[in-house]
Design brief:
Blueprint lengths: L11 E5 L2 E7 L2 E7 L3 E5 L1 H81 L5 H20 L13 H7 L9 H35 L7 H27 L6 H18 L9 H4 L1 H33 L17 H30 L6 H44 L1
Antiparallel strand pairs: 1-4, 2-3
Helix pairs in contact: 1-2, 4-5, 4-8, 5-6, 6-10, 8-9, 9-10
Organism: Crotalaria pallida
Pfam families: TMEM120A-B
Keywords: Membrane, Transmembrane, Transmembrane helix
Length: 416
């Protein structure tokens, strides 16, 4: 029987120039090289068999990869479930551990208020020297700052969220439980004020320069409306941030938040105000021109406040007389040099703001520009100017009373 099988299939001839043929010579293996052409007969059956083997190996590899991925996915799912269970148990333990700390913080806060009332009662009945009472009051204030400005502040009840926050954000809690997160909110607010103060100065300055050099003394409506839209965005952002800061323990005066509400409404109404052009453009746009000049002065005042008052606030925080979440706004000046610098600027701004409001009312009443938006914006400017002036005077009076009290206590200490 032959050692090979001849298949009745078409064959493929491969001519090889160099073929290595092995054989046994003298009991030892030797390899001889021939240069004679050699014809290799490969049938289609051989190609089909090799292709089938490759496909089988590929399918086996894919099956192994699929099984391995399924095992890894199942392991990831189990790990996620285990992590969720561990985190839920951790939150439950943390909540249970917070309860006694919360009660302790509430008792301590109530005790501080009670001791302060008792101290004031002793001082009013002249049962304790004023110098001693002042020293004890500072100690109580320092203890109060430690409680309400430290990590224990999250254990105390927070301020209720106002309607403004609920209107924009809904009934969600915006109070941060960690002090570092609260401080990041404050730093972002200060950064936002710095950016907007610079834009408050540059935006109207650019409009006034273009009005004189390019627009022949008559402002187009579109740039003015862009500026008014930016003012709406600015005051809305400030009001939102200040409300969030108040919820997180910042001591922002309510008037400044109301002031930004009024400014928001004024910016929204001014967007519907048609900016008049020729003829008599200079007369019709007199109020707009003065408002842009006032905005430039406001930008300068904001930059000065950010520079001088923040340094003083950091000092007060270090002395325990202010909380880390407190911010500077409005008239809050620090030392006498800053008062002499900032207060005249603030009073000039407030007077100029009232003048612009009265000018808008005058242009509406004499019939130059008689739209209702002009009357509305004029009234709002006057109201904001009066409110700013009143709040500034009240703050300065409170500072003067505090300084007089400090001088009186120091003089009594020298006499004692």
């Amino acid at each position: 029987m032959p050692d090979y099988v001849i298949l009745s299939l078409p064959t493929l001839e491969c001519h090889l120039e160099h073929v290595c043929i092995g054989g046994w010579v003298g009991g030892e293996e030797s390899i001889a090289e021939t240069t004679t052409p050699y014809t290799l007969h490969l049938t289609p059956y051989t190609f089909h068999h090799q292709k089938q083997r490759r496909e089988e190996k590929r399918e086996e590899g894919m099956a192994e990869s699929s099984e391995r991925i399924e095992e890894e996915i199942a392991s990831v799912v189990d790990e996620a479930k285990d992590l969720q269970d561990s985190m839920a148990a951790h939150i439950s333990r943390t909540t249970n551990d917070e309860q006694p700390l919360r009660q302790r913080a509430l008792r301590l806060d109530s005790k501080i208020h009670s001791l302060r009332s008792s101290l004031y009662s002793l001082l009013s009945n002249k049962l304790i020297p004023p110098s001693r009472a002042h020293k004890l009051d500072e100690d109580l204030q320092r203890a109060k700052c430690i409680v309400v400005d430290g990590d224990a502040a999250s254990l105390l009840p927070g301020k209720a969220q106002g309607r403004f926050l609920r209107m924009f954000l809904g009934p969600i809690n915006v109070r941060a439980s960690r002090k570092d997160v609260q401080l990041k909110v404050k730093e972002e607010y200060n950064s936002y004020r710095d950016r907007t103060a610079l834009l408050f100065l540059l935006f109207p300055a650019i409009l006034l320069i273009l009005r004189s050099w390019i627009w022949d003394g008559c402002l187009p409506a579109f740039p003015v409306q862009m500026y008014q839209a930016w003012l709406l965005f600015l005051y809305t952002g400030l009001a939102l941030r200040e409300n969030i800061l108040r919820v997180n323990g910042s001591d922002i005066r309510p008037w400044w938040i109301y002031h930004h509400y009024c400014a928001m409404v004024m910016a929204l109404v001014s967007l519907t105000w048609e900016v008049k052009g020729q003829p008599d453009c200079a007369k019709k746009q007199r109020g707009v021109q003065l408002f842009l000049q006032w905005a430039m002065m406001q930008g300068v005042a904001m930059l000065l406040q950010n520079r001088y008052q923040r340094q003083r606030l950091y000092t007060r925080i270090a002395l325990g007389k202010a909380k880390r979440m407190d911010v500077v706004w409005g008239e809050t000046a620090g030392v006498d040099g800053q008062l002499w610098l900032l207060c005249p600027i603030l009073f000039i701004l407030q007077g100029f703001e009232a003048y612009v409001g009265l000018l808008l009312l005058n242009t509406a009443f004499v019939g130059v520009v008689s739209e209702w938006q002009v009357i509305f914006c004029g009234v709002l400017l006057v109201v904001m100017a009066v409110g700013n002036f009143t709040n500034t005077v009240q703050t300065l009076m409170a500072k003067s009373r505090f300084k007089a009290k400090m001088k009186k206590s120091k003089s009594k200490q020298r006499l004692d």
